Amino acid sequence: MEQAKSARNFSIGDKIFDVCNIIFMIFLIIVTLYPFLNMFALSFNDANDSIRGSIYVWPREWTLRNFEYVFNESNVFYATFISAARTIIGTVISVFCTAMLAYTISRPEYALKKFVAITFIFTMYFSGGLIPSYLLTKELGLLNSFWVYIIPGIIGVFNMIVIRSFIEGLPEGIMESAKIDGAGDFTTFMRIVLPLTVPALATVSLFVAVSQWNSWFDVFLYNSSRPNLSTLQYELMKVLSTSSATTSSGGSAGDAFANAQGNVTAVTPTSVRATMTIVASVPIIMVYPFLQKYFVKGMVVGGVKG
């Protein structure tokens, strides 16, 4: 009798937990998706109509004027190409070099692995600062060049730790077998370690790609005088700065841009900001589903082994 009562109570508790869990997850989904859906609605809604408010997750008056305004700005399409180039090239080089460093530090026969690891981890907590970094970049001849986007961030310490933790979890017998067959360290790394660390590499690739795609401050510091090296994020930042400055100069939010463009297209800082968010977010959103399964696996294994 007591066992039946206990089982009944346990079942009721499970049901209560499931209901609470479902409610919490629905609330979490709403909180996560609403800001993006609101930006989507504002970007596709007529700017003057948006001033009335009450735009939540669906446009009231559909229009493409906001996107026309953003993409009519000079250099946006070429800046998109530069952003894509730095994202692809920077991600490939950074992940490959970080993986090589992680493999080296993970090897038990490497006598200086602890010293090298501590040295890199030290840089996570202390840096030289903005001015020394700028002077070093200048001395290296990276100012006003595309490679200033790639070389300074070629090694990520956190990414190195994730990959190293993953490699340390691999069976040591596989690498020993490769050495018995005459494979050197580079051959072992390329043909054995890299294929087995795909989940960790995918996780790190996503981190690096998002960072490269969203970066604009390095453009401002090192390449602001080179329009041909401007990135999409920097161009969109300039559009937003111009929109805010124009509005604050005394004109209304809608009329200011119509006069500046010399046509009847009217946009507002709010509509431009929303459009910028959509333009900058869509590429990463399109990439993430293909890396999601590797991302989850890589984070779980890296976190447990770390």
From TrEMBL:
Q: What are the record's GO terms for cellular component?
A: plasma membrane
Q: Where in the cell is it found?
A: Cell membrane
Supply one GO BP term. transmembrane transport
Q: Which Gene3D superfamilies match?
A: MetI-like (1.10.3720.10)
Residue ranges annotated for the ABC transmembrane type-1 domain, each copy included: 80-291
Topology relative to the lipid bilayer, per the entry, is: Multi-pass membrane protein
- Say which domain of life the source belongs to: Bacteria
CDD domains assigned to the protein according to its UniProt record, in alphabetical order? TM_PBP2
Membrane-crossing segments per the record = 16-37, 76-103, 115-134, 146-167, 188-210, 272-291
Q: What SUPFAM superfamilies does this protein map onto?
A: MetI-like
Keyword tags:
Cell membrane, Membrane, Transmembrane, Transmembrane helix, Transport
- Designated name of the protein: Putative aldouronate transport system permease protein
